[in-house]
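Entry for the shared binder. Reason: the reviewer on the internal report wants the predicted structure included alongside the sequence.
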Amino acid sequence: MVFFGKLFGKKSAQNPENDFVVTITDDFVRVEHPNRKTEEIFWKDINEIRFINTDVGPFTIDVWLALIGDNSGCLIPQGTKGCERVYDIVSKYEGFDFENVIKSTSCADNEQFLLWKGKKTATNKGSRCPTPFKTKF
């Protein structure tokens, strides 16, 4: 009976998303992980929002919510506690592209989907998107 319990029993493998801690305040979003540099962005500094899909799933993180600013940004793995709350907030931004959200859900390749882009100003000349593709957990 022990054999069948091990074969069909509950898996003990931990999800890599569980190692991420997302802190949400009125001013900023912070993402912490024991093996990565802490990332933080102020809500007011967000210039772009993307879903970044990778081809490494389903046993590791394959979809990231990217909050991108000129000098800061955060990558939040989908499934991390707090990711849904951040998504709920940013999906209310004017011009948020729900069509690209749908496209992202059916993608299993290395691809980025622009969900929102802020208006360019004199101090906002564009941004570079951080990439999770080479991250190992």
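Summary line for the report: The chain has one domain: 14-117.
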